Amino acid sequence: MRLAILPLSVACLATLFLPVANMAPLKVLSAPNLLRIGTTENIFVQCHGCKDVSIIVSNFPSKTTTLATTRVELNLQNNYQALGAIKISASGFRNDPKLKQYVWLEARFSDLTKLSKVVMVTFQSGYIFIQTDKPLYTPNSEVHYRVFALTPAMEPVNDKDPTDAIITVNIMVLVENPDGSPAPDVPIVVTPSDFETTTSKTGIAMVSVDPTGNSLTLSITIQSKGQLIQQGYNNIVGLTSVVLMLRIKKEMLPSFRIIAYYEAIDEVVSDSVWVDVTDTCMGSLEVKEVRNYPSFRPHQTFTYRITGDPGATVGLVAVDKGVYVLNNKHHLTQKKADSPSFL
Fold it and tell me: Does the pTM exceed 0.85?
């Protein structure tokens, strides 16, 4: 019988300071791999025992100019981890999409230690949607279109800065027979915790492992559309499975990644999972005729009633269905607008 342990995928955009045992605490600086100029970005920092952290963005490579700075407090209540918001000004950068530009991102901890990394910056600060009035046009016909811009949080472009936890570190065990076929119903025991399970019909079993055997803190961050949008932690004692409830927010559409990690002696154990969000409209909307008519003549007045959520902004588009006779493609739907390929 052959036993194979399959490692799970690891993804964490972070700079880590791994301490020598029984000396310095674990320090983490985590940020998006692209910082958007003119857009508020969240930076994750962690340092057990530190009082505060200063997050500084400087020009690259000289570090002679401070481009953005913020300070966050760390304490027992937030488990010595927090998100700091920074916004880089466009001053000093060239708005050239072919030019690669970088900044220094640095975290200065209260114990006088530092973490730094070089991060690329971009002027892409949101999304632009273009919508036409018809999917098909004939020669010499007019094309009516509209263009609207959205922030990375999928909100109308303005000066708003939306600022708003959350899986057990598992090992997948695959057990096979000598001929390569899966071995079902094979007992799996994890010591010293006496955790027991058996393999499934496919020869696979999921087991929870705590290398330290002591209490640990499972740190969790959530990333969507290249941004860190939430962070949290959960204290775990011994070997256990943890179920955490996560409320889906609009910032997580159309998909998001959950990144979890914990410190084990002189290494960091991490894992991540990608989650797709079911496409649904975030609210109610109804368009209804005030009076029902079987048909309408050209230039006849049409009266309708719109019912929706209070304070909602509603856009109206009227399309002659005759244009879909020749080409019934390229409808702008909620699913298409939320898909990563469309964005």
Answer: no
